[in-house]
Amino acid sequence: MPELPEVEVTRLSFADAICGARIIAVRLGQPLRWPLGVVPQVLVGQQVLAVRRRGKYLLLDLSAGLLLLHLGMSGSLAFSAAPRAPGKHDHFDLLTSHGVLRLHDPRRFGAAVFASSEADPVALKLLGRLGVEPLGDAFDAEAFVQALKRRGTAIKSVLLAGEVVVGVGNIYASEALFLAGIRPTCRASKLSRPRVLRLRQAIRDVLARAVALGGSTLRNFSNAHGESGHFQQQTMVYGRGGEPCRHCGSLIKTIRQGQRSTFFCPACQKL
DNA sequence: CACGGATCCTGATGGC
DNA sequence: TGCCATCAGGATCCGT
Description:
Elements: H1 4-18, E1 23-28, H2 40-43, E2 48-54, E3 57-62, E4 65-70, E5 76-80, E6 90-96, E7 99-104, E8 111-115, H3 121-127, H4 141-149, H5 155-161, H6 170-180, H7 193-212, E9 253-257, E10 260-264
Antiparallel strand pairs: 1-6, 2-3, 3-4, 4-8, 5-7, 6-7, 9-10
Helix pairs in contact: 1-7, 4-7, 6-7
This protein binds a DNA duplex through α5 and α6.
């Protein structure tokens, strides 16, 4: 469910409120992915110093360590002073002096993992192979050109893998490739330099705009206050198979790449 | 090493 | 109404 914009919107919606809070207790529901790190006792008594984001991970900096949260496909976070009794799909509660941070995740592809620091092997395993952040200065044009030259797979798959650039999931990959006029099946290594530069800008534009709109709400994504996003109302291609292209009127095509749906306009995205 | 495919899990949806 | 197949915003692991 959540790609970079949804994770960032979530972060912004509770970071200020939770900072400075003392962790009082942890409640676990059914197991999430990577149960390894979460030993509740390690968290109790620690203070939440900051909430950062790395790719699609949320990083809670604690007084003695790091709590990594991932929303998987169906996860969302809620932060409230007086939460209701946990429901069937509420699998992780962080009770703090400022309120309860609750992870709701029906499919349980999400994760809550404790690491002693970013150098901890646990953190390295999850974060170590991540590519560059797309919205920062570190998303260097030349480095992006060089990285794509080394990838023989379809550009859409390269974006989703997150080893070159992070945060671009299934919605925004299709959207960015449309904005750049690039066919999702084109091998990354075959993209010309000008086209790579356009793609870089398209990724930055689409992600930044989605953050500004509060993210996408396909099923029931909401920020930590329960508010929905609005990006999905203006996708150019994602979820629009068979409908006319908003730019040229051609019918949007749906294909499968690596078990995921891809959407593109056959006229606007020639190669 | 790089790639494609299967896999984890639950719920919604559509066809019969 | 029920049953079955398919699909869903992610990422890892395993075989080739």
